[in-house]
Amino acid sequence: MSNSLYFIVILSDIIAIGVGIFAGKYIFQRSFDAKEKEAQDRAAEILRNAEVAAENIKKDRILEAKEKYLRLKSEFEDDANKKRSILQSNEQKLKQREQSLNQSMEQTKRKENELDSLKNNLNSQLEAATKRREEAEKSLQQQVTQLEKIANLTAEQAREQLVDALKAEAETRAGSYIKSAMEEARLTATKEAKKIVIETIQRTAAEHAIENCVSVFNIENDDIKGKIIGREGRNIRALEAATGVEIIVDDTPEAIVISGFDPVRREIARLSLHRLVQDGRIHPARIEEVVAKTRKNIEDEIVEIGERTVIDMGIHGLHPELVKMIGRMRFRSSYGQNLLQHSREVAKLCATMAAELGLNTKLAKRAGLLHDIGKVWPEESDLPHAILGMELAKKYKENPEVCNAIGAHHDEIEMTSILSPVIQVCDAISGSRPGARREMMESYIQRLRDLENLALSFDGVEKCYAIQAGRELRVIIDADNVSDEKAGLLSFDISQKIEKEMQYPGQIKITVIREMRSVAYAR
């Protein structure tokens, strides 16, 4: 009985153990399946998040790539346009040089024909002279014989009388010949001088496009005009205040007109508009930022223009300040004639004329390029531009002949070098070409400059811009030092001074602008 009970107890324990094992396995399997499903769900969620993040990164990279592509495309197109314009200019110069060479070859052929004709004439004259000499010897012999018979003189005595007579005749003829030779030499010298000047002008081809006071900014579509004007015109007012030009937005399709007498201001406004339109963000703060950057870039461009000019002209060793002033000539006009084009032309004329006269062509070209350097000196000076240019050339260690040629090309000082009259003549040739200069343009620009300088002479005036062909004067004052009441009085004082000191057609509107800004930084 005890054994069977013992067996039953053991069997019940084994069954309990088996049931426990089976229950544990079942519970473990359920737990493992739940964790596996949870892990799979988490993995799927991580995968989905990764796919979303990858898609966002992909979109960002695509957007960055598109922006970079557009920027590179714009830079490439700008560079291509510059190179295309340079190529077209070089092709035009080559055509002009080819035409000049053909003309020179035709002139050479004509001169060879003239020399052949002259040679034939000289040969015929020599033959005629030989015949006349033989006839004269025969006549002389006959005269000697007759003299011996008539005068009952010896041949020696007759010879002496004949020699005296011939000597007197020879002296008379020699004096006449010397006089005619001197007159012929004067005529030949004048003719040769005219010939050198004419050949110099013919061998120098130059374009004479008279600069005006407007620039045209082309746009892709007229929708951009609204952005440039801004709400209630705030953008265009900010652009005019920052650049000092007048922006004219009218019905002209796909074009905006930039008006102003100062070519540097017009160029700053044009480049600023180009950058603003490309960027798309057009508002007053952005406009001021872009104009400031553009003004700095213009200074760099001036240096680049100067360096490119001296390289094109084959001039070496110029001081960097002189190179910078040569670049500044690109944005300066004299009597409506672009000063850089005028100086380049004078340099070419000087080199050609110096070569014809056997002078130093390098010094002549150098002096021709620098002869008007005094006109672009940024500081005010009471000296004439020729004397100021000479002082600058001396300051930067230029050759004394070059310095004298610069200072004497308007007869302010005495000419001490043969190079000086060459520079003076070439300057007159360049300035006197038909259509090269326009006196009214220079007087008009000078009147606008005087108008701005008059307003700048008042205390508290920061900037001053003459716009609308001088019919309006915009004066920007310092808000910290000038009150609203004083601003009103300032416009009246400026108008009174303009009436007393200047002569002008019509009337001038004086607009005084006082803008108060408050700036703070959150850190």
TrEMBL record:
Its main location: membrane. GO terms for biological process: mRNA catabolic process. The keyword GTP-binding does not apply. Residues 339-432 form the HD domain. GO terms for cellular component: plasma membrane. InterPro entries: HD/PDEase_dom, HD_domain, HDIG_dom, KH_dom, KH_dom_type_1, KH_dom_type_1_sf, Ribonuclease_Y, RNase_Y_N. Keywords: Cell membrane, Endonuclease, Hydrolase, Membrane, Nuclease, RNA-binding, Transmembrane, Transmembrane helix. Its EC number is 3.1.-.-. It comes from the Bacteria. One of its GO terms (molecular function) is RNA binding. Residues 107-117 have a biased composition (Basic and acidic residues). Belongs to the RNase Y family. This is Ribonuclease Y. The gene is rny.
